[in-house]
Design a protein that fits this description.
CATH superfamily: NAD(P)-binding Rossmann-like Domain
Strand content: 5-15%
Structural class: alpha/beta
Number of domains: 1
Order of helices and strands: EHEHEHEHEHEHHHE
CATH class: Alpha Beta
Low-confidence stretches: 265-270
Largest sheet: 7 strands, parallel
CATH topology: Rossmann fold
Number of strands: 7
Strand order of the largest sheet: 3-2-1-4-5-6-7
Mean pLDDT: 91
Number of helices: 8
């Protein structure tokens, strides 16, 4: 098995900027047909303007929190490329929460964007993948009917009250990944997740801009002593989406430079 995704059709959400954009670009470079979806038409066009005439690329704008938009995205993909083989649920939001404020709505917002959008996209795309596999000849059918790559974060396993909404939503995304992996395994559809930490995402850039010392703190707490790149996430997403990961499902792969290996509360020396 190889990690090639050439000729496959992928939907990448959150593709206007950051990690989602890096994944979409990488998939195009690897020969895939890619639908780049994002909520912001302005950001999508600004980041992907040079792809408008690319035969293998399709830009789609819409609010995926709406069920109709999910259906429209899938329809646009089939109209353009006839099928869908890969879904990368890259659309995420990073929000801070006041855990003691009953008027704070960030938990609802984080669950809506980071969990429910991914779940509804996965359900819609999986149904299409099942239909495609059933229509194929048994002798020429691919080993995998499709692959779904979700996103989590190392925040799912760290207790930071100010990240309550984000932590809950990413932890839920991991459980969703495992549940869908088992439910879709009989159909040969694989579901895995990437847990991001110590990677230069759009949200991390914003936090470093607000708190310049944060970069040094991250590097100091990361065994590999650096911040990861969006390109490294894109390569990991390609691996999970390819036949090279054909016997891997229901797993959460941490891209954190070993950061989760350290206890953030160090034992005092005696």
């Amino acid at each position: 098995m190889t990690a090639s995704i050439a000729g496959r059709t992928a939907i990448v959400t959150g593709a206007a900027a950051g990690i989602g954009h890096a994944i979409a670009r990488h998939f195009l470079d690897e020969g895939a047909h890619v639908v780049l979806a994002d909520m912001s038409e302005k950001r999508l066009k600004a980041g992907c303007d040079d792809l408008c005439d690319h035969d293998n690329a399709l830009l789609f704008t819409g609010d995926l929190r709406e069920r109709l938009t999910v259906a429209n995205l899938l329809s646009a993909t089939i109209d353009a490329f006839d099928r869908v083989d890969i879904l990368v649920n890259g659309a995420r939001c990073f929000l801070t929460t006041d855990p003691l404020d009953p008027a704070d709505t960030t938990v609802d917002e984080a669950l809506s964007q980071n969990l429910m959008v991914a779940l509804r996209m996965s359900q819609a795309v999986a149904r299409r993948m099942i239909t495609q596999a059933e229509a194929e000849d048994a002798d020429t059918r691919r080993p995998s009917a499709g692959a779904i790559v979700n996103f989590s974060a190392i925040a799912a396993h760290h207790t930071q009250p100010e990240l309550l909404g984000y932590s809950i939503s990413t932890a839920a995304a991991e459980q969703m990944t495992r549940s869908l992996a088992v439910a879709l395994a009989p159909h040969q559809i694989r579901v895995n997740a990437l847990a991001i930490g110590s990677v230069m995402s759009a949200s991390l850039k914003d936090r470093i801009a607000e708190h310049p010392d944060y970069r040094d703190r991250i590097i100091k707490g990361t065994p590999l002593r650096r911040i990861g790149t969006a390109a490294e996430v894109a390569e990991a997403a390609q691996f999970l989406a390819s036949d090279a990961a054909g016997f891997i499902t229901g797993q959460v792969l941490a891209l954190d430079g070993g950061r989760t290996l350290l206890d953030p509360v160090q034992t005092p020396a005696y």
